[in-house]
Amino acid sequence: MANPTFNLTANAERKAFALYVDVSESGTPDWEVQGYGTEDASIAFSPDTTSLIDILGIQHNQVNSLTRAISITPNTIRPVENFGMLNELLHEYTRRNQLTKLSTFKVLLVYWYAETGTTTPVAIADLYPTCTVIPQSLGGTSTVDFPYDMNLGGDVQYGTATRSTQGDVTFTPET
User: Fold this and answer.
1) Do the domain assignments include residue 48?
2) Range of 23's domain?
3) Which of 87, 106, 132, 174 is deepest in the core (most CB within 10 A)?
4) CA torsion 105→106→109→110, rounded to 10°?
5) This prediction's pTM
């Protein structure tokens, strides 16, 4: 794949970096965008680093791994047509104590601000096949809030994403 080009005329708006969760329980992905009503959500990389000073007094630093995680707070219970399908799944899994299902989600990161150099612009995207989505609480003051944390995991599949006029997202892995 060609190196992506940032497709910007000004600073990238936050909506140009989108996170989708596969909310289907079948083999065909149904990508639901996350972050409805959330003002701030960033992926924390939580680097594992090693640092040592050798016998010559020279410091050496190494990044061993990055553990990617994100918190979606607030997250309010809402209708399915308003990006609420993940809420329904999480509610059912926690209510029935089906904890293993909390570690079976596929998550798609789409960098809508970065396009490949193809004739039909498509965004670069990363698919994390085994992610955990962990609700933190249920309740709130004026609305029923259901914030959750997400840990991205599995062997990342790199590729591209396109959007239909209906907003549906399609992921195509690199070959």
Assistant:
1) no
2) 5-43+71-173
3) 87
4) -130
5) 0.89
